[in-house]
Design a protein that fits this description.
The protein is an alpha/beta fold. Helices cover 34% and strands 14% of the residues.
Length: 207
């Protein structure tokens, strides 16, 4: 059963915490994590790109010249795709890139991502994260004390505006909640910082 140190905000060790092996001790499945990350990024796409076809660009109502006898190739409109300022042939139109993955795949990917952080020793568990005021300096001091990497993901059990605002201006640092945690954010950040309460909630959901 994997164990991690529980620290306070000054980096002092308080105790050892045993993690649920079904959540934090599985063999990471890279193929599944990759599939879920690709799915997440696809679902973030707006799909609002749009080009004008020959029916949508302005002009082109009159045939440029007669069909025969000019020596030119026959043309029906100056807004056909081969003309300058003509419409775009086969260009992108608004569409949805969204698709869904099997629930078992998503759960396995989450467990794999969490377990990979344990294996890499980049999972940090804090007894609690509280800020007395909106102070970016205090958040930087805390991250330095616990030896967090520059890109750190702080996962909280519930909304705390002082923590969120204190971390908002630090490049590479992101805060999120247990119920909005995703595989992409876990893998995209060097350190994963959880509170004891957040660990408990994650284990309740995925164990």
């Amino acid at each position: 059963m994997p164990t991690v140190q529980v620290m306070d905000m000054t980096g002092k060790k308080l105790e050892d915490l045993e993690l649920n092996e079904a959540v934090f001790g599985v063999a990471p499945n890279e193929a599944v994590m990759h599939a879920v990350v690709v799915n997440y990024l696809a679902n973030q796409r707006q799909g609002t790109q749009s080009t004008l076809t020959r029916t949508e660009v302005r002009g082109g109502g009159k045939k440029p010249w007669r069909q025969k006898g000019t020596g030119h190739a026959r043309q029906g409109s100056i807004r056909a795709p081969q003309w300058t300022h003509g419409g775009i042939a086969l260009g992108p139109k608004p569409r949805s890139y969204r698709y869904t993955l099997n629930k078992k795949v998503r759960r396995l990917a989450m467990k794999s991502a969490l377990s990979s952080k344990v294996l890499d020793n980049t999972l940090l568990v804090l007894d609690n994260i509280t800020m007395e005021d909106y102070k970016t300096k205090d958040m930087i001091k805390m991250l330095t004390a616990v030896n967090a990497e520059k890109k750190a993901l702080i996962v909280m059990p519930e909304v705390d505006q002082k923590v969120i605002k204190s971390a908002a201006n630090i490049p590479g640092v992101k805060t999120t909640l247990v119920n909005t945690l995703n595989v992409y954010d876990i893998l995209n950040h060097g350190s994963l910082i959880l509170t004891k309460e957040a660990v408990k909630k994650i284990e309740e959901v995925y164990a």
